[in-house]
Amino acid sequence: PPHPCLLPLPSPRAIPPADTASSSSVSTDPGDTASSEYAAQVNRQEEMQLDSYSMKTKRDATRRALALSKFREKRKNLSFEKKVRYVSRKKLAENRPRVRGQFVKRNLPAME
To answer: Cα separation of 83 and 75, whole Å?
Structure first.
């Protein structure tokens, strides 16, 4: 059997919430309103934590879905065509002398 450290942890949804009626800290005396109010408050807090967790995961999932759709749209519209950004630079480059496509210095007048 695998070592206990190597076993996967249970997901937060797999762990059932604690039942407050069976907990020993809550009094069953109907006259004890302070403890019953406290138990109700604890219940509400636990429910809110579970709700906020599920809402956070839903929000993250929708945010990711929106980001993925935006990425896919941008990828569709990518253009790998040659684009001249500066017309003046293009004109200068066309006028410069080249040898096999590479720029070379202009020939200096020969000294004799």
So the answer is: 18
Phi/psi of residue 86, nearest 5 degrees: -125, 110
Whole-structure pTM over 0.90, yes or no?
Answer: no
Distance from C-alpha of 81 to C-alpha of 43, rounded to nearest angstrom: 62
Q: How far is CA 39 from the centre of its chain?
A: 37
Cα 103 to Cα 93: distance, rounded to the nearest angstrom: 8
Q: Which of 71, 69, 79, 12 is closest to 46 using CA atoms? A: 12
Take residue 8 and report the two structure tokens written for it: 């996967």
Written as six digits, the tokens of 38 are 């406290």
Distance, CA of 35 to CA of 41 (rounded, Å):
10
Q: What are the tens digits of pLDDT across the range 23-79?
A: 445 455 555 667 778 888 787 777 777 676 777 788 888 899 999 999 999 999 998
